[in-house]
Design goal:
Blueprint: H1 3-12, E1 31-36, E2 39-46, H2 59-66, E3 70-73, H3 83-92, H4 101-104, H5 107-117, H6 132-146, H7 154-165, E4 169-171, H8 175-183, H9 190-200, H10 204-217, H11 220-234, H12 236-255, E5 264-269, H13 279-285, E6 289-292
Parallel strand pairs: 2-5, 3-4, 3-5
Antiparallel strand pairs: 1-2, 1-6
Helix pairs in contact: 1-6, 5-9, 10-11, 11-12
Length: 295
């Protein structure tokens, strides 16, 4: 599998990262206007990889983009030609000690993972030096391609548009921090992590299609049920790292965007807007007014 495909898929693992925000049930899109006094910015939930059939995006996204001076993404989107960053990712996801995939997984789970890859002509022994996070990314990339859902994401769509328009961009976290997050997935509980992924990939197309429908409708209650709560119940450590801690880290950055003359459009994975620890919940608790954008 090409590294460019792998790198795109790696950020697909953060596809959707849910708050008891009352307007969510009646939502029409995943775009919110967040205001305090006369100052405001936009926060929009995204899907990092979408099938071509998902375009054009809901008009509310374009409205928020046009009305904004600055585009804010989770992280800088790497160029496909950035071989240095690709090498850094592979290094972070490789074991550098005496561990290997066959050592950290039980024989039972190792066989299950091996059986998963067999129809694709991939021998798991070839990947023995890589961590479970890397294996999960490979599985995700295969599922996305099989389901014909490995197209452009909302983030990359507006990243390209901002470059064409000369619109400034800001980032909530570094690429290195996302690589480390992915590389550490499943560390210390490898069997449970891989079994969870094998279960989720069992009906991937139907599952992911349901998530896209919930995201497009702005149904954060449904998105919470599909994407956030399962992670919280099956993998509490990953839930804390992927959702809770990152949402808390982003809050002060969002608050610092108020009080200037710019208007920002902040694009973050849709799951970060769903559930009791979501960005929307944190903003609401901090006294900001939330309005669904509707045309």
């Amino acid at each position: 599998m090409k590294l460019t495909t792998l790198f795109k898929a790696s950020f697909g693992t953060l596809l959707l990262s849910s708050a008891l925000v009352s307007p969510a049930v009646l939502a029409e899109t995943s775009v919110w206007k967040v205001s305090k006094g006369g100052d405001y910015l936009y926060v929009a939930g995204t899907v990092h990889l979408l099938p071509e059939s998902a375009f054009p995006l809901p008009a509310e996204f374009d409205k928020a983009y046009t009305d904004s001076d600055t585009l804010v993404l989770e992280t800088k989107i790497p160029e496909p030609t950035d071989t240095e960053l690709q090498a850094a990712m592979l290094k972070a996801m490789s074991y550098s000690d005496n561990r290997s995939l066959s050592k950290v997984l039980s024989p039972e789970v190792y066989k299950q993972v091996s059986d998963y890859f067999a129809p694709y002509g991939v021998q798991l022994q070839q990947l023995d030096g890589y961590k479970p996070g890397f294996i999960m990314i490979q599985m995700l990339a295969l599922e996305m391609m099989k389901a014909q859902m490995n197209g452009e994401g909302v983030d990359s769509h507006f990243d390209k548009q901002a470059k064409i328009d000369g619109k400034p961009q800001l980032y909530l976290e570094s690429v290195e921090s996302q690589i480390n997050l992915l590389a550490n997935m499943g560390d210390g509980y490898e069997d449970a992590f891989m079994k969870m992924n094998l279960e989720q990939f069992g009906d991937f197309k139907q599952y992911f299609s349901a998530m896209i429908d919930a995201w497009r409708a702005g149904d954060m209650t449904r998105l919470n049920t599909l994407a956030v709560e399962p992670a919280r119940q099956m993998d509490p450590m990953l839930y804390q790292a992927l959702f809770v801690q990152r949402n808390q880290n982003w809050l002060p950055q969002l608050e610092n965007m108020f009080g200037n003359s710019n208007k920002e459009l902040v694009l973050i994975g849709g799951g970060h807007l769903a559930g009791e620890h979501s960005v929307l919940a944190l903003l609401q608790q901090a006294g900001y007014k939330l309005e669904q954008v509707s045309l």
